[in-house]
């Protein structure tokens, strides 16, 4: 029996497996520049975040209808449930779809077809987090927030993803303020490829309650101390870090040191179709390669619920 866990860092577009990509391409008459699934899988050799993002955005061309988004989410939820995920807080990237002429309603209502009945069909509760692409303008993010207003009963919060370096959190100050005023929860990717100062900025300028990745905090002892003191959750993605070469090998991943430092770490899959594993696979990998004890794995699973939007703030502070 896999450990029951919550998944807090998962891009739904990153769950598009090659088989489903080809099925949707055929259904929608979209041509893919790959002959078959094996040829596509061979393209999954990444040098860095940008080289992954190029393929990630290219493959999204197959997602066109509400049913496509529903099928995508259903396939993820089935795999996640089989690996012990009981609760999933799911990112989506509306700007990548709006740019292709696929409307906000198609994306949100499509995902909701699967998410809205996920507790019955998969035993997984879900929440939806809308991410802004940080390499697009702040004005575009604000327009996206505006476009989401009819769907805010389906969206619990906002996040920030895509190419990090050169796009500091402060660029999105106004849109985060506007989202906060709408009662939306706030998270952001920071410290994946970007410097530790982006983590500080995400906390102080954007008011995030959780940091996605946050790996590079380890370069700044004062920041680590702060994250421990304020019990700021970090949503780590070990297999992603290896595939995007944020760390050289999994054996060198700082997760054990981060846990020893007292950081509130969680383990997640990020873009499992691209990075070689779902949430349970990430847990298995850190157990095998980093030698984490059962006690540490239980701590990580417990942290995932503590760091989730289900947890009450008092509970998080009390640990
Ligand atoms: N980092 C930044 N942006 C992303 C990622 C990631 O790991 N996955 C999908 N968009
Ligand atoms: Zn991510």
TrEMBL record:
Residue ranges constituting the Adenosine deaminase domain according to the UniProt record = 4-317
UniProt cross-references to Pfam families, sorted A to Z? A_deaminase
One GO cellular component term noted in the UniProt record for this chain: cytosol
Quote the EC number: 3.5.4.2
User: Which sites are catalytic?
Assistant: 192
Tell me which UniProt keywords the record has, alphabetically.
Hydrolase, Metal-binding, Nucleotide metabolism, Zinc
Q: Which cofactor does it need?
A: Zn(2+)
GO annotation, biological process: adenine catabolic process; hypoxanthine salvage; nucleotide metabolic process
Recorded GO molecular functions are: adenine deaminase activity; zinc ion binding
Role of this protein: Catalyzes the hydrolytic deamination of adenine to hypoxanthine. Plays an important role in the purine salvage pathway and in nitrogen catabolism.
Its name, as the record gives it, is: Adenine deaminase
The organism named in the record is Streptomyces capitiformicae
